Structure formats: C-alpha cells, structure tokens
Amino acid sequence: MIIDGHAHVILPVERHLALMDAAGVDRTILFGTRIHPERADNLDALEKELRVLDTVLAGDANNALDTYQRTTAELAEVVQAYPERFTGFGNLPLSLTHDEAANWIQQHVLANGFRGLGEFTLAPGQIRQLETVFELASDAGNLPLWVHTFAPLRLEDIQELITLSRRHSDVPLILGHLGGLYWRDIIRLAKENSQTYLDLSATYTVMAPLMAIRELPERTICSSDAPFGSPLVARVTVEQATESQEVRARVLGGTIAQLLRIG
After folding, report:
1. Which CATH number, 3.40.640.10, 3.40.50.10490, 3.20.20.140, 3.40.309.10, labels domain 3-260?
2. Coil vs helix vs strand at 119
3. What is the pTM of this model?
C-alpha cells in the first residue's frame, strides 16, 4: 500500500482523489486546513490565501473554537465519505485548559476516528504549549503527534521539542517537513530519539530525503503536503532515493501504516 503521509483537505475532494490516482497513492493521511490555495486561479488570489497562512505561521491566527470546529467538520466529512482513501489527524486549540483539551480530543478527534493529533504550527518560543498535548496523547493511547518543524521555528525550538518528547517517549512524534533549513540537525536528533519519525514533505533539496532515508530508513515517511506539494513528485523522490525494495516499501507506506495501525 502506498500512503501519502501528510496532505491537507483539497476541495473539491474529487480533485484530491485524482491527484492520488495519478500518483498511484492508495491512501492519504489527511489534515485540516484554514486555507484552500488550490482554489486560487491567479497570483492575487493565491496571496490572499497565503496571508492567512502567514498569520498561522507567526502564531497570530484566530484561535477561536469555531475556527477549529469548522476545519474539523470539513476534515471529518471528507474522511467519512472516503474511509478507504483517507485517514484523519485532528487538531485542537492550544489555548484550552487540560480538561477542556481532554474533552476536545474525545469529541472531535477520537469520535471522528482520527488516528493522531496535528498539524501543530507554532511560532518561535511557543513549544512549551505542547506539554498538555503530549500528556493527553499519552492518555488517549499514545496518539502520534505531527508538529510543523519548518520556518519560522528555529533550531533551538526544534531542540526544545525533542527535549519535551523525551519526557513523553511513549508518544510518537512526527517531525513535519524534516526541519526545513535544519534538516541535517533534525536527522541527527531523530537518530538519537527512537520515538521520532521524519516527514519528508516540503523539503527543498533532494539531498534531504536521500540522507533521511539512508540514516533512518525505518522511521522516514513519504508525504506531499498537498496542495503545496505533489503526491507524484513525493513518490518519485522516494523511488529515486531508494535502491532496496524493502526500504522503498517502508518509506512509501509501510512505516506510517504500522504506526497508525492501518491494515
């Protein structure tokens, strides 16, 4: 089974299914989104969508509950309509109290059949906000966490994330986007921490996925970050970086299937 380990809701969903079919992808691990850049038909429209993304990356986005409820409902609708093609990850507002967050996970994550938590996108200096999430992920059966480690995070933020993860080593941590500019550092950090996994989406040089696969073939996950990336390009990148059929099968779906118990 070939699995795209990270993509966002694309509307209409038929467009996403067509991308998957063209790439030979059987299933996608799907995440909610506040924006839909795939709808933009010119640069001005795209920039309007991306301005919202900029506020998310800066940590200034609207974190009202209704925003999370809307994106969660949109995600759940797609996953429930195509359960054989999509597996969901659910997000939650980091402003919630411990008890509120626990209730949210029960009502909006587990009740929807989602298999993990994320994508968590934080501004520099905000990693400590994930402490409660790690605790609740452990309480919920060690739900995997997916954390954005590209810009604007700094290396010290990624190091703080790893330190936090060590205190909750029963919770799998997927290091999203391979750390961006810090891909060499994040590969070394992952090698030292067996609870971590490397996500290959949004890498800007083919050397990054190549080295990740060589160093950690059993904990590296192929993904596209669609609509920002292409499932086909993600698959071909892995195929070009692997000679072993066994390793290729792991990276293209075996590892994430095992992690999320996808049969």
Report:
1. 3.20.20.140
2. strand
3. 0.96
